[in-house]
């Protein structure tokens, strides 16, 4: 276990102990002064949080010269738009943590017919506070294996929550919901997910997968272009989308990011729309 993992586990434990003590105070008279039963665990949790943030700041940064981009097939078909792309900045999501140095987010954004509103609902400052997942064209879209691979790991069972596409909902995600998930660990941040072993020390991560949509299990072999799951809205997300990245190990807690390029697409920049045909995944 790495030092960072050990500190993160201690941090989570401190919060659990603090929560249990606060709840217990409502039902029983705990022995000792209040600073022992509540203040001390709170201070410990705070300092452990600072230690976690300090360790996370440098965690996962690539060592030496970056690897050459690994070419893989696109994980989707249809028309999509890129967000938080490594074509614009690295690390694309602001941190190297969880092997996501070169991660990209993509949202389905089909062309609207003349006179029709965009198929993907826009961000609103106040109202509606949230939208149901079915309002977003990405939700339920098939996810495809980007190469011939072995399934290194899967995780399922987390709910697909409603969108966080208003300012109040986004604030709730950033201040409360996201913080809780960070304390609980990477699997809660990624939500339901699939990790593929592409060989030669390269692993592909598909995050925020729809609950109950997994079509593969750990140990399965898949072919490029094979459906493996569907886009969902689980984990730390604002709306249904795919978070995709390559990394150099099967455990996001310890892996480092690997640059990628999608065959026939490249690496789309922020706000860039791209279209993938149904025959691209089988190429190469």
Q: How do the helices and strands follow one another from N- to C-terminus?
A: HHEEEEEHHEEEEEEEE
Q: Which regions are unreliable across 5 or more consecutive residues at pLDDT < 50?
A: none
CATH homology group of the largest domain: Glucose Permease (Domain IIA)
Biggest β-sheet, characterized? 9 strands, antiparallel
So what's the overall shape?
globular
Structure description:
Keywords: Membrane, Transmembrane, Transmembrane helix. This is M23 family metallopeptidase. Strands 2, 3, 5, 6, 7, 8, 10, 11 and 13 form a nine-stranded antiparallel beta sheet that branches. This protein has 284 residues and is α+β, with helices and mostly antiparallel strands. A hairpin with a 2-residue loop joins β6 (193-199) and β7. The chain has helices at residues 3-25, 34-58, 167-184, 186-190, and strands at residues 70-72, 78-83, 104-108, 142-144, 149-155, 193-199, 202-207, 221-222, 227-230, 242-247, 257-258, 260-262, 273-276. The model has no long low-confidence stretch (mean pLDDT 82). The protein folds into two domains: 3-58; 70-276, Glucose Permease (Domain IIA). Helix content is 25%, strand content 20%.
List the helices and strands and how they pair.
Blueprint lengths: L2 H23 L8 H25 L11 E3 L5 E6 L20 E5 L33 E3 L4 E7 L11 H18 L1 H5 L2 E7 L2 E6 L13 E2 L4 E4 L11 E6 L9 E2 L1 E3 L10 E4 L8
Parallel strand pairs: 1-12
Antiparallel strand pairs: 2-3, 2-13, 3-10, 4-9, 5-6, 5-8, 6-7, 7-10, 10-11
Helix pairs in contact: 1-2
